[in-house]
Amino acid sequence: MEADKATKKFEKEMKSGTASLVLLSILAKAEEPLYGYLIARRLETETGGEPLIKQGALYPVLRSLEGSSLLSSEVEASTSGPPRRYYRITRQGRETLVAWKGIWDSIRNFVEVSLEGVGDE
Amino acid sequence: MEADKATKKFEKEMKSGTASLVLLSILAKAEEPLYGYLIARRLETETGGEPLIKQGALYPVLRSLEGSSLLSSEVEASTSGPPRRYYRITRQGRETLVAWKGIWDSIRNFVEVSLEGVGDE
What we know:
2 copies of one chain form a homodimer. With about 120 residues, the first copy, chain A, is α+β, with helices and mostly antiparallel strands. Chain A has one domain (about 5-115): Orthogonal Bundle (Arc Repressor Mutant, subunit A), CATH 1.10.10. Chain A has helices at about 5-30, 35-45, 55-65, 90-115, and strands at about 35, 70-80, 80-90. In chain A, helix 1 (about 5-30) packs across helix 3 and helix 1 (about 5-30) packs across helix 4. Chain A starts with a helix and ends in a 6-residue tail after the last helix. Chains A and B meet through helix 1, helix 2, helix 3 and helix 4 of A and helix 1, helix 2, helix 3 and helix 4 of B.
């Protein structure tokens, strides 16, 4: 495998792990259930620009989080298009988010310490 | 999938992505080639305690980085045991590390912004 492929793999792994964490956070802070497009909008607003998760990539992650009982969803008719699936975080989702935040914090610190001094020569 | 399994998956994905970044950083800062045990020791020293990558988990990552030409290695006889495989970072590895650090920085910022306010209620 060449370096370019290794970089694509690295980026994919990093995004895959963090996408679930980010979506769970967005839904933990939402005051009402959100459907895909609204979640995509919040990702853009929060990060002030191009989000790291494209809208199309949201849906498999949302379904997977629902499959793990961290989110629940309901389909509602829309007056302006096809029915929409609204997602909300479950109680278990909130508990899991606390655990994931802990895991994230220790991995982030570990990486930051390792990166200290890199590229300073 | 239950929440526990989702948490194991999350942790595994996060560690898998970051392990390559951390090992590349360690070898970028090393003043001489290092073999597995020495790398494991540096991980412990740097992070001041239990490292997030166990020694046994290092080897597949090192081999994969070498397969991508980011590291090179050489086997040397040891007076005190079996031969040791010494790893050093390649020029391509240094260039790749700069790219990965950029990817890490933007993903870290994205996650940090998303986590802001979570658990504050």
